[in-house]
Bifunctional protein FolD
Amino acid sequence: MTTPATLPTENLPTGKLIDGKAFAATLRAQIAVDVAALKASHGVQPGLAVVLVGEDPASQIYVRNKAKQTVECGMKSVEHKLSADTPEADLLALIDTLNADPTIHGILVQLPVPKHIDADKIIAAIRPDKDVDGFHPMNAGLLATGGKALVPCTPLGCSLLLKDHLGDLSGKHAVVIGRSNIVGKPMAQLLLQESCTVTVAHSRTKDLPAVCREADIVVAAVGRPEMVKGDWLKPGAVVIDVGINRIALPDGKSKVVGDVDFASAAPVASAITPVPGGVGPMTIACLLKNTLTACQRSVGL
Ligand SMILES: NC(=O)C1=CN([C@@H]2O[C@H](COP(=O)(O)OP(=O)(O)OC[C@H]3O[C@@H](n4cnc5c(N)ncnc54)[C@H](OP(=O)(O)O)[C@@H]3O)[C@@H](O)[C@H]2O)C=CC1
Ligand SMILES: Nc1nc(=O)c2c([nH]1)NC[C@@H]1CN(c3ccc(C(=O)N[C@@H](CCC(=O)O)C(=O)O)cc3)C=[N+]21
């Protein structure tokens, strides 16, 4: 896959780019230190089990990246690859086994699962204290009520990037575009916890560009390539692009773009995350952070 001659992230004024890839690397380095300390103090190694059902190519890339980075920070990585026609009962049985395995502290079933399997049932079958995706209703409820939840990785990564870049978020007006259970809704909860004034937009929102122009912070999680344009932004807004969309190029190749039109948004924003190299790496780093947290809690820390 050829990268375009002038990547839009090149020759941007310093401070404009929120470098999620670099931040994720420092986060993983800290996790590796904490994993070594946990091994030394409690004789326990955090274990992450990832289950992939079917052969979706994108999922295979993410699972491979996750396993590599899990091992790099000193954790135990276990992968279960099941065929696309695996009965739902077999997947539930595997989850029960992983729930009971004392060497496994985090369980992730890669989404989407094949159509014959009920994803909500799968998510609800994972022990909440091992639900390192943070998708389980128990964790969603704890997040909503300010309890000790495991927080979904992508919104957690976005929150860490925003706090690192802006410091105190209180009083800022944040617009989250998207209301899914895995990104938009938990993202709104985290921003509320940081005392932002939060607007959650979606496909029924009227005059979305006008709503976005009110925002100090825009988080785009819609799944529509380059939808958010520069003229949707208040000058100086901070933009977090969660989108991951593969688009076809004229030369027959393809490339990954976000939900934000980077070329028109970057000049207007005060800071923006690139795709790739922004939220994606933070998602994996926060998965490892959640696995460490789950392991620490399992020994009473
Ligand atoms: N970087 C990472 O680690 C991750 C990235 N992603 C990416 O984030 C994006 C969102 O993922 P996910 O939350 O699972 O997506 P979903 O498809 O579950 O949700 C999309 C949301 O966007 C809203 N939406 C769709 N079209 C519009 C529109 N025209 N105007 C306003 N809102 C709209 C939908 O509204 P409604 O509710 O009304 O249908 C819905 O709430 C995707 O690009 C995905 O690839 C996802 C997970 C992790
Ligand atoms: N149970 C479950 N949990 C998930 O967290 C989950 C999931 N299922 N299903 C799929 C989505 C998607 N997702 C990504 C994670 C990292 C990158 C990532 O690291 N992207 C790199 C680029 C990778 C590439 O080169 O394409 C980047 O944005 O820089 C992307 C996407 C997690 N997901």
In short: The two ends are 45 Å apart (CA to CA). Residues 20-42 form the longest helix (23 residues). Strands lie at 47-53, 76-82, 106-109, 173-177, 197-201, 217-220, 238-241, 245-248, 254-257, 271-272.
